[in-house]
Specification:
mainly alpha, Growth Hormone, Chain: A, 2 domains, 19 helices, 0% strand, disordered N terminus, disordered C terminus
């Protein structure tokens, strides 16, 4: 499958010289999927083994995303100076160290929680660097179908997420929960392997800090500010449904947890991977701007189905179908922005990554905040009772309804953007 990536034709008599680089970038996004999705699978085991509270477990999630945002900002500032090869090698080193620490540190400290927190910080630094550095590397590879290559790159995050969920669940079931600490050590093998690959693969010519458009100049462009808003909404639309669909299925729809996990966030990740892979392999010639506009509209419809459907099957279908609709929001916005700001470099990709991470943090947080408020006597609880007959699921539905503002804004933003293919001069460096 990966051999079909749209890159420039190889020299006569040999494979394309940058194909190993491309494959390493794919594995980089699988690594990011590991560090973002492995620990949440172990949260119940952490609570049972170490007596952690729900607040402490939630703080680990916040620590992960907060550290990644900080790493995004660091990568934006220094990647052009130290070089991309050094940056991605360092990123994989942090990911591997953090995963090993996740299985070892809780048993080395007198209190396990600081060990878990340090492990999360370590691999979150690596995940943040990967998020910022991989996209400009792939964008710099020779070839004309940049949007397709970007979509295929991001599809490997989805496939990595699905693999982590499936393989880790099976491993814990077969080996026993008491051996959970072996799992992150085994997953650390992949970033170590990719670290060695990135030391040798050829790197494309990337713009340095002297030839790229500085962030201050980018921020003066209305198009760039729109792209930042779209990325924030893309991250919020995706992560809200990903993180809340399991709880919504179990408590709001009365569906058993294992079924809800598989048919909710599990199927959502698979659908995202299918769409991103399709666009990466077959998306050449498709109007990406129009496709994103349709994606925004369809995402609003899926949120509405999940929120207002009376049938649990229909509501869960709305959750899962969001995978189709959010799949291209993140990589598509990156691709449109890179095409309009070809000299944006790390500043462009880094700023958009920060916006996406902020949205990925804000969306689920807003849904949870509104859910808590709607669970108590007050105006939101009254609204939940008016809109939904089931008071138990009503608070959850109101929380998702509040977060649905993000796909609405994404749809409106794409509608108002009106980017035309023949308009480039005022967009590239404005």
């Amino acid at each position: 499958m990966v051999s079909m990536v749209p890159v420039a034709p190889p020299a006569a008599g040999g494979a394309h010289p940058y194909r190993p680089t491309l494959h390493s970038c794919y594995l980089g996004f699988v690594t990011q999927a590991i560090v973002n999705n492995l620990a949440p699978l172990l949260f119940v085991l952490f609570r049972n083994s170490f007596g952690l509270s729900y607040e402490q477990v939630g703080r680990l999630v916040l620590l992960n995303f907060g550290t990644q945002i900080a790493a995004d900002l660091i990568a934006m500032r220094y990647a052009d100076r130290v070089g991309y090869r050094f940056g991605v090698v360092l990123a994989h080193g942090f990911c591997a160290a953090g995963l090993v620490a996740l299985g070892v540190f809780p048993f080395l400290f007198s209190a396990p929680y600081p060990g878990l927190a340090i492990a999360v910080i370590l691999y979150a630094i690596g995940g943040g660097f990967i998020e910022v550095l991989m996209s400009p590397i792939v964008d710099a590879l020779p070839g004309e179908e940049k949007a397709s290559a970007m979509s295929l790159l991001h599809s490997f995050y989805c496939w990595g997420q699905a693999a982590v969920i499936l393989l880790s669940t099976v491993a814990i079931r077969l080996a026993g929960e008491q051996l959970w600490f072996v799992l992150p050590v085994l997953w650390a093998i992949l970033p170590l392997y990719n670290l060695l690959r990135f030391r040798k693969v050829p790197m494309p010519s990337l713009p340095d800090g002297k030839t790229t458009t500085p962030l201050r100049r980018l921020s003066r462009s209305g198009l760039f500010r729109t792209a930042v808003l779209l990325m924030l909404c893309a991250g919020a639309s995706e992560l809200t449904m990903t993180q809340w669909s399991s709880l919504f299925a179990e408590q709001g729809l009365g569906i058993p947890k294992i079924v809800g996990d598989l048919l909710g966030p599990g199927l959502l990740a698979v659908f995202m991977g299918i769409v991103r892979t399709w666009y990466g392999l077959r998306g050449a010639g498709v109007d990406l701007r129009r496709l994103l506009w349709v994606s925004g509209f369809a995402c609003v419809a899926c949120y509405a189905l999940a929120i207002f459907a009376r049938s649990p099957v229909a509501a869960l279908a709305g959750c899962a179908a969001c995978g189709f609709t959010v799949a291209l929001m993140w990589p598509g916005t990156l691709s449109l922005s890179a095409a309009r700001f070809p000299a944006g470099g790390t500043a462009l990709f880094g700023a958009l990554a920060v916006a996406g991470d902020l949205g990925g943090s804000a969306g689920p947080w807003i849904a949870g905040l509104v859910y808590d408020l709607a669970s108590r006597p007050g105006p939101l609880a009254t609204l939940a009772n008016v809109l939904f007959s089931d008071a138990g699921s009503g608070a959850l539905r109101i929380g998702l309804l509040a977060a649905s503002v993000f796909p609405v804004v994404f749809f409106v933003g794409m509608f108002s953007l009106r980017i035309k293919k023949n308009r480039t001069t005022d967009l590239k460096d404005s």
